[in-house]
Structures are given as structure tokens and as C-alpha cells.
Amino acid sequence: MAKKREINDYSTDPAAQQMLIRAEELGIGTAFTRADNMVPCNIGGAGMCCKQCGMGPCRLTKNGEVGVCGATLDTIQARNLTRAIAAGSAAHSDHGRDMAFLLKATANGEAEGYSIRDVAKLRTVASKYDIKIEGRSPEEIAADLADHYIAQFGQQQGEILPAIRAPKKRQQLWREQKIWPRGVDREVVEALHRTHIGDDQDPAHILNHAVRTSLADGWGGSMIATDISDILFGTPAPILGQANLGVIKEDMVNIVVHGHEPSMSEMLVAASQSPDILEYARAAGAKGIQLSGICCTANEILMRQGIPAAGNFLHQELSIMTGAVEAMVVDVQCIMQALVGLAQNFHTKIITTSPKVRIKGATHIEFDEHKALTIAKEILKTAIDNFANRDQGKTRIPQIKEDVIPGFSHEYINYMLGGSYRASFRPLNDAIMTGRIRGVAAIVGCNNPRSSQDYLHNKVVKELLKQDVLVVQTGCGAIAAGKLGLLLGEAGLSEVGNGLREVCETVGIPPVLHMGSCVDNTRILTVLTQMAEEGGLGDDIDQIPAVGLAPEWMSEKALAIAAYCVASGAYVIFGGASPISGMPDRVSDSDAVLKYISEGWEKLYGGKLEFIPDPQKMIEATLAHIDKKRAALGLPEYDPNRFGRSGDAKMRELEALPLATKREAIYGVAAD
Prior knowledge:
The protein has a 6-stranded parallel sheet. A 6-stranded parallel sheet has the order 13-12-11-14-15-16, sandwiched between helices. The protein has a two-stranded antiparallel sheet with strand order 1-2. The protein starts with 6 loop residues before the first helix and ends in a 5-residue tail after the last helix. The longest helix has 35 residues, at 73-107. The chain has 5 domains: 7-59, no CATH class; 73-233, Up-down Bundle (Substrate Binding Domain Of Dnak, Chain:A, Domain 2), CATH 1.20.1270.30; 241-402, Rossmann fold (3-Layer(aba) Sandwich), CATH 3.40.50.2030; 405-579 and 588-632, 3-Layer(aba) Sandwich (Rossmann fold), CATH 3.40.50.2030; 643-672, no CATH class. The chain is an alpha/beta fold. It contains 27 helices and 16 strands.
């Protein structure tokens, strides 16, 4: 058994710490204590175990050792990593498939309660694929776009369509390397086939197909999911919201929505605002309904509707322990089976909604987009009926929450930099070229209970901001920053480098931009593409001074995201443990795959993946890479003292000065 940590070691979030103290008082286990009690297998954790057939499992722990079939360590590690990437790609892309079916049903008038909210984006996206838009209704255009997108999953030959939105040079590289995905499902199936016993046994060859599979997600399934979510529910723009467990209300029916697919959560938002449901809640003795989100569902409804986020991945158990949650409504991905047992200590109902996900002991109310509003109201009434069962003696709601401003879609970033008539990434490129902004970091991904919750995310964010690095975030990392108060325009600017501060004050943006959920990492790819197309920072993503980081990763989806970002030209750094770390002290060649996904992939794609557990070294590697890319572009060497306060800030300071001092400050001469 691992050494038990203190409460402060589990999480840096004070609201989480309060709930973890409460869990100890009640004798209830959580993911944190289970992580302490469960010692990871050092062989499997290092990627040195193969269980792909009935002759094993085979554990390779000595130099020259091979499996029963003769498989070498690097082949086994390549297979394990590829299978994980395939699973992560399948999870995100299956989300995209369901969104495509929903778009088709909405276009045909068969999806109750749904409509096309962003016709402009529909027309923009459709035009990229040469779908006729002039003289046609939104529903006609949407039906054709849905057909195009649905076809991407089962397509057997050719190239998936959304990838034509990558930089031209990147497209050429994918064709030369023969990794442009043919169809989403085909690449996932082939990844599993290649890694079956007796198939592909060349580690580099295996891993290059892992890249192809991940591209089917990043420039396929996930991009499709983001496009359709914007079309159906609205493209995000900045909106005021709140984050942390303090958003749960003692006098209201509290419903926490957890998972990843916005089709269900958006309909719950709509249903919760209907007069009949509100009256039903008041009749039950509540003042109303408080919806809040966990994980990526939180990001989806936060950035579009301003619905508060109760927290990120590791808050799912803690929200129930407030004793004030009538129902936790879940769909797919990142949902702990432990929720049902935990909820039995309180009155909370766990309600599963997806035909793909059931949890033993949970209430199942299957969601169907054809009857979406009706089913959403049924779910809400089930929660409202449970309000009377709340035990006020068990209610403990941390009074901790932060205001946040999410919703920085790539469309809004483009607009905010230039306005309606001159929207452009030129100001961002210019700020990087002059050195006001040193570079860009995308800090994304999960929480991991083997880390101190949010510590790595926020440590890296705060240190990079001091170095004039603009930060964009998605997923649980974005909620971590929100809980710390970094998603506000004025938040933390005193700790931001002078050049970045100038840009933030001039444009009116926070130093950390919330860009959405996990699938919305494709928005980051779009921003990088538009920066490359704008000019001045090279003509491909691998030339831009930018780095992607997942400090607290834990899921196969994160590995898929890493691989498609690498294939797009990005340097990606993961914190925590590597799933293919090997044991160099026992097996001298056990780092071959690690070297390949760094040095080998960089030679092929210009991007690389590295695992760096120490946050300070992670920061140093990020800055070194950004500076290397700046030098390669011939940009000025970064100088933190080159720029001062912005014009607006300077004018406010000058206004407070005596007239004579003001004259000297402005003109450089003393008063007569």
C-alpha cells in the first residue's frame, strides 16, 4: 500500500479539501484514497506487459527477453500505445458520429426541441466542402452537411474531408507520409487488427498507423463534433459564469450533469427553464432548479449558456458529498462506477442516459433525440421528486466559487482581434513577432488522483504567464484555471509579463482563454492553422512558437489528442507517468519507443511527444521550444523588459500625477 497523503496533498482546491475532510468524517472512500490504496503495477505501467492473446500475459523485465510469440519489448510497447490511441480516437469520434446523426434528424424535423442556432457557421462550414448554400434553406444545407459528415466514419477509400482545413504544407506532408486518414472507423479497426497477435511487428510501422488513427479523430470525429455543436447550440462567445462547488444551492433542486455529449445537457438546460418544470419544482418546496456541470459537459453548457461548472473530473464524487444534489445525470466518458455506491450514503440519484453506458445500481432513463424535450422533462421531474428526500443534516456546501468568462471559440478570437469588418489573426501574429507575446501554450486535459488536483495545471499556467506566454485551455484544465480565478480579464494581470499584459489590456481579454471541452482541441488546431495562413510565423503549424501540455493526463483520449497534435506539427508535453516508460535500470533498450515518439516523430512530422513529470522541467522545456521556434523564424530574442504597460494603463497612471510631473513623463522635459 502506498503512503497515505494528507488532505492538502490530494487537492489544491479549498472546496475540494472541505469535501475530502467531510469524506474522512463519514468514512467514505474517494478516488484519492483509492489511488493511495491501489499500488500501480510497475510492469504494466511501464508498458512492458502484453496480454493480447491467451498465451500470456507476457512480462518482459530482462534484457533480450521476448514474449511467447517472440514479440520484443518495443513491439509490445508500440502495440499497447497504439491500442490506447485507437480507444481514445474511438471515444471522441463516436461522440462526433452521434452529433452528425442529431444534425440529420434536426434537418429533417425529427429531433424534438432542437433547431439550427448558428446559420452563419452552418453556411461557412458547408461552403468548405462545396455544398451549395445559395437559395437553400438552413435545413436543406444541414441535411447535406450531415450526410457528408456521416460518410466520414464509414468511408473506406480516399481522404476524410475535414482535414482539408489544415495548412496546405501539412496536407502535403500527410500525403507524402501516407497517413491521411481514409475513414474514421477504418483507421480504428485497422489499428486493432495490426496490433492483434501475429500481425504488425515493426514498432515504427505500428506507431505511424497510430498517428493516422489519431488524425481521424482530431481532423475528423472531434472536428465534426465541434462543428455540429456550434451549428445546433450556437458558436461560443464570452459569457459570464461561475465555477466550483459553491454554485450548488441549498434551497434549490440541484442537478449535476456529467459526461461529454452536449445533446442531452443542452436539452436539460432548455427544459429546466420551461414554466411547467419550474412550477413543478416550486410545488415540491424548492425555489427553483440549479443545473451545474462536471467535466466536459460542464464546459459545453458553461461556454454557451453560462450554466455554472460544479468542477472538473475529480469533483464528481465531491459534488455528491455536499448532500444537496438530487440527481447526477451522466452520458458517456470519465464517469466513475464508484458514484452509485457513494450516492447510497446520501439521497442522490445517479441517472444514466446513453444507450452505450449503464452502471449497475443506477437509474436508467434512455435519451432519444427524437423525444428529447419530453425525456429531459422526465429526468428533471425525477430529480425534483427526490428533493423531499434530502437530509438537511448531511448537507455541507462549500461556499467557494469563482466568476469565469469562458467561450473563446476560434471565431470569437478572430473577431476580437479585429472587429466585424477586419477580423484577423494579424494582431496576434504581430504581437508574437515583436515579442510582446513570447509564444502560445495550450494547457489541456484531465485530472489524475495520483497528482495533487489542479496543482500541475495551475503551476504551469501561472509560470508561463509570467514569461509572456498566452495560454489557451480546454477540458478539465480550463475548469482548474477557472476555479483559481484566471478566466477573468482583470484576474492575475499583476502576475503576467509586461508584453502579454499590454496585449490583454488593449484587446480586453483574460490571459487565459477558455476554448471549450476536450473535443474542442480542434479549435486550437484551427487557430494554429489560421496563424500559419496569416503569415509571418511560417507556413505550417510546426514553425509556430507554440506548445501543447497535458499536465495531469489520465485517459486514452488524452493520448489520442497528443498523437494528432504531434502529427499536426506540435510539441506535446505530458506530466505524470509515461505508459511506455520501460525500466532503463533493468532493461537497457526499454526506452526505444519513448525515443521514437520524440525524435522519430519529430523527423517525420515536426512534432513530438514527451513525458516530463516535473513541472519546473515542463516549463523549462516549453520555453526552450518556444525560443527555438522564434530563433528559427528570425524573430527578436525574447526580452521581458522590452515592453511596458499598455497605453490605457499608462494613461490611468498619468492622470493621477501632478501636472508638472505629468508633463515630464509625457514629453521628457521638466515644466517651466
